[in-house]
């Protein structure tokens, strides 16, 4: 059964993969686990159970040394956050954890969904982060030990109109229980509520599950961290609310 703890682990593995695929690093400081993502000059603190000044201070100092322009923290809603708030962290949009079996699309979107990392339109940090979908294919170059959870399979899907215009993208990473953790789903504002997002979910699910013997009734469970604006979308695609978490930003 998918739990909030399981969903938190899936998000942790994603942030670790993004860090290592873009030339960053992972480090710990007295009970605090950090992921440095240089493509966006972002330092991420990942679900500390009991964050204390002894762990926060050296971690933030390392972030300053690395040139972090953004420092954020993901925290379980039940974990104490007093030391984080004292260090200058405050809440951003509330996060809700969703999980469930992917619901078949009611109507097919008239476009194409493809897996792969060839996106000529991608620039800057977006282009660099595409490498996260190649991390699991080259574990030696990743600089991680064999079996590290960040090396679980990741795929990226794009949605294009029949004319070839890029209108959406999303990533999925395999979780330990066979679920697919969805990350970075984005759709052009002009085409939201037209089925593009659902097409991306279905494209990723069908592309990452062995197609032999797979029919439309096959159950595929997804996990996602939703913002208030995206929660209705995930619910409409068959995912239920697991609970809520906290996403903090260093001001």
Automatic annotation (TrEMBL):
Claim: Transferase is one of the keywords in the record: yes
Entries under Pfam families matching the protein: Acetyltransf_1 (PF00583)
InterPro entries per record: Acyl_CoA_acyltransferase, GNAT_dom
PROSITE patterns: GNAT
GO molecular function, a single term: acyltransferase activity, transferring groups other than amino-acyl groups
Gene3D superfamilies assigned: 3.40.630.30
Domain N-acetyltransferase span(s) in chain numbering: 100-251
Sorted UniProt keywords: Transferase
The protein, known as: Acetyltransferase (GNAT) family protein
């Amino acid at each position: 059964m998918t739990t909030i703890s399981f969903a938190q682990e899936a998000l942790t593995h994603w942030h670790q993969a993004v860090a290592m695929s873009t030339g960053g690093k992972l480090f710990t400081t007295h009970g605090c686990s950090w992921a440095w993502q240089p493509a966006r000059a972002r330092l991420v603190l990942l679900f500390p159970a009991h964050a204390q000044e002894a762990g926060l201070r050296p971690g933030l100092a390392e972030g300053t040394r690395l040139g972090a322009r953004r420092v954020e923290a993901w925290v379980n809603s039940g974990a104490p956050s007093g030391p984080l708030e004292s260090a200058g962290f405050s809440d951003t949009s509330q996060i809700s954890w969703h999980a469930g079996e992917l619901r078949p699309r009611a109507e097919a979107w008239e476009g194409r969904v493809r897996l792969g990392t060839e996106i000529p339109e991608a620039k800057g940090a977006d282009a660099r982060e595409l490498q996260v979908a190649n991390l699991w294919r080259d574990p030696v170059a990743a600089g991680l030990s064999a079996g590290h959870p960040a090396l679980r399979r990741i795929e990226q899907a794009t949605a294009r109109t029949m004319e070839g215009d890029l209108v959406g993208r999303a990533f999925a990473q395999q979780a330990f229980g066979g679920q697919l953790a969805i990350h970075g789903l984005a759709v052009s504002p002009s085409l939201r509520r037209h089925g593009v997002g659902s097409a991306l979910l279905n494209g990723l699910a069908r592309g990452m599950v062995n197609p032999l013997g797979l029919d439309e009734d096959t159950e595929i469970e997804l996990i996602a961290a939703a913002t208030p604006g995206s929660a209705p979308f995930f619910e409409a695609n068959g995912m239920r609310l697991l609970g809520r978490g906290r996403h903090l930003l260093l001001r």
